[in-house]
Amino acid sequence: MVCEKDPLVQEVCELYEKISSLENLKPSKDVNMLFTQLVVTCMPPSPIDVTKLCKRIQEIRSKLIRLCGEAEGLLESHFSTILGSYENPLDHLNIFPYYSNYLKLSQLEFDILSKHCSNYVPSKVAFVGSGPLPLTSIVLASFHLTTTSFHNYDIDPSANTKALQLVSSDPDFSERMFFHTTDIMDVTNALKDYDVVFLAALVGMDKDAKVRVIDHLAKYMAPGALLMLRSAHGARAFLYPVVEPCDLRGFEVLSIFHPTDEVINSVVLARKFPMTKHSVEHRHGPTKLPNKFFDIEMFNPLNHVNLMEELDIEEQLS
């Protein structure tokens, strides 16, 4: 059982105490400094397994993920407002402090996607939890999927208003970028239209909520469609929820990628099974997967070598 004695856990707990005592989480010198310290603490590769944390630390982790989510939303909203004041907002995206991370993450996601849909370009993509600054959609649409239409879903109307402001003046994007203000749990038949669905890291901030969203997507996505999720690995799981292969009932896991550089999120790619009586309706017990193995890749920026190992999914599900 990992608890307070671990130096990394100790440091995370101290930062949690400082962050939770802040007056608010809007961008400011103190907020930026504390969250930067938290990210720097959690970024190095770590053998820590958050599922083995004691109950008190588990509770702190849950609260910390929510605080990170709130701060991230406020940061994106702040910069979306600034960008929206420009005549051509898309020309100024680099003012967002983490823009280069989005460029790297989107490149990574596109590369993984390309390996598994090399024979076609997705015509319609959904991004669930796009927020006020939908950088993944914008970067993918700009550089990688230049003919694809993007349907961005967010539950917050003000987030969509700000996001729309960023793309409405661009003649290409205004025809390919769509915004839907709704809870994804209320979207059913429309999900069948998408070749790929991206699920943002902070949609479903705890395990139960995340699994409910994944189950809903498994029920309504088109058979054979791809689901791209963001997860976290090692100490980075103090910042974002973790998605395990066993959470993806109704999907075949194709690839899991754990970056070890400044891209914080792990990337998981899965394919929706053809509809069978075992895939969606039977929610209990391990799903029998047709492919026994999938790739786990870890990227080390120091030597630019991809370390690949095969992992037995059946062990993960047991």
UniProtKB/TrEMBL annotation:
Keywords recorded for this protein, A-Z: S-adenosyl-L-methionine, Transferase
UniProt EC number: 2.5.1.43
Gene3D superfamilies reported for this sequence: Vaccinia Virus protein VP39
Keyword Transferase annotated: yes
Enzyme class per UniProt: transferase
GO MF terms held by the record: nicotianamine synthase activity
PROSITE patterns (alphabetical): NAS
Family of this protein: Belongs to the nicotianamine synthase (NAS)-like family.
Protein name: Nicotianamine synthase
The gene coding this protein: LOC111277381
